[in-house]
Specification:
Radius of gyration: 18 Å
Strand order of the largest sheet: 1-2-3-4
Oligomer: single chain
Order of helices and strands: HHEEEEH
Number of helices: 3
Number of strands: 4
């Protein structure tokens, strides 16, 4: 077999899988989080660091099962000519634990 055909087969399988995930999860954003995005709860502008603007978005995800992710955190980096997004999916328990840790850190690390 020719290596070119193997590469094209693997590439085609990846594209088909990505399209399936995007269609079944309500778009590319839902595919990245592993669940459809119901709504954006809020956004925090973290300001500029050099040419980069950073935004933190908190999203509500559709729960498909009792232990599936229900909260999405999206870190968005953008410049004039580029855009980068890092998704983090959390279950309800993980989101509550993160909330408690953030409260503790905001209070100087004491409980």
């Amino acid at each position: 077999m020719n290596a070119k055909y193997i590469f094209l087969g693997i590439f085609g399988a990846v594209v088909i899988h990505l399209l399936y995930q995007a269609i079944s999860k309500g778009g590319l954003r839902g595919a990245l989080f592993g669940a459809p995005v119901i709504r954006t709860v809020g956004a925090i502008d973290l300001g500029r660091k050099g040419p980069f603007r950073t935004t933190l978005n908190v999203l509500c995800l559709e729960a498909r099962a009792s232990d599936s992710p229900t909260v999405g955190i999206e870190v968005v980096y953008s410049t004039i000519g580029s855009f980068s997004m890092s998704p983090v999916s959390l279950t309800r328990e993980q989101a509550q634990e993160l909330s408690a840790l953030l409260s503790r850190a905001a209070n100087g690390g004491v409980q």
